[in-house]
Amino acid sequence: MNYPEGLFYSKEHEWAKKDGELAVIGISWHAQDSLGDVVYIELPAVGTELKPMQEFGVVESVKTVSTLYCPISGKVIEVNQELAKHPEAVNEDPYGKGWMIKVKMSRPDDLKDLMNAKDYQASLKA
Amino acid sequence: MLKRTPLYEEHVSLGAKIVPFAGWEMPLYYKNIISEHEAVRARSGIFDIGHMGVIDVSGKDALPFIQYVATNDASKLNESECQYSILCNEAGGVIDDILVYRLKDFYRLVVNASNTDAVLTHLDQPSKSYADCRVILRTDLSMLSIQGPEAKGSFLSLSGLKRNYCSDWQGILVSRTGYTGEDGFELFSPKDKAVGLWREFISKKMTPCGLGARDTLRIEAGLPLYGHEYNQNISPLEAGYAWAVKFEKEPFIGKAALLKIKENGVPRKLVGLKLDGKNIAREGFPVVSGGKKIGAVTSGSFSPTLKIPVALAYLEAKFAAPGGKVFVEIRGMPHSAVVTSKKLI
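Above: the input entities. Below: the structure tokens describing the complete assembly.
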């Protein structure tokens, strides 16, 4: 289990990392562990406008499929192309090489609605 | 209360992800499904299948009883041979698919964990109409399965053992059977020997494999799983197992209904699907052609061997020929697929 400090976590098990006016988004250790072997990630086109709780893609694993929900508002400026070749990066390095999209935030206050690492871990136990 | 096999603590100590399955706490995977699947295709892997039901049938009437409840012809079995067979209801629907072993003094049925209770109930009434027939669930045994092209290296004294035959190995009954599409061996271990055997194989660097890989391996091999390809409303004829239904033997449960299905032609057939694209067809997803639903997916996965999404599906018989183009509806969107035989690899 691994929930780095400094990230913002959603109830839907996505994380967001603030980088100036940008946010990098992926799924948590718990999410990838629940899915098991990830084999395909469907991601949005660059330029897509997203809002909190809007679907932005799906993760297919061997056993199951899960919808991705955007934790914040903004415009997709980059998607992780490497995941097409190496979907297993989501399992192996969910907060690093397994990142999914970069969003230019339109409402940075959205981050305040998310959980810190400690609260997220507590929510997993609840 | 979920049941545990004698190997539960071994799984936990190996870091397995444990899930409930058919009333048992079983390992889904240890490391991940794909690496375990690949180990079995390339080398060998060991599975705890202690959840399988082992039912012994003994007495002078054991054979006539089995002939009546199961579809295959057990009178053809040599000693130490086993056959795939099916328990049907009167309508020809499947109660369970099983292996029937002929051992020295009795017969042995290996049944699905999820159906062990249903099978015992199904056998109870008929067994009482035979004067000398005893049906006993062997709770003192726990099965292990060792599968893969290198599995035979662990059973050198059994190098001459033919597929679907069993033999003594170090005091344990071992059969050359499996559920992966590979060569392999299944062990009927006394419960108190299971941990020792498991540790011995693990110490030889054999890959422990969970139910996840067991499922992806059997899907690639086109082997049906009860609750997916079989249920009480599906006949073995539709699943492509007419060869395990012997109409020429004495009467058996479901014979009349199955004969009728055979004469009318099966309405649907089990096929394999290879999908274009990357999305995975899951159980229940509709299969369509010309805008009309022609069937449904029963099992779907990413194929670690082929590196594409594959599925097993029942299609209307006229669409079941290999090579046909169909579409699987995945979250409302049609995805093209090619029909293949159910054996996908």
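Note for the figure: Helices of chain B lie at 8-13, 33-42, 62-69, 116-128, 191-203, 211-220, 255-264.
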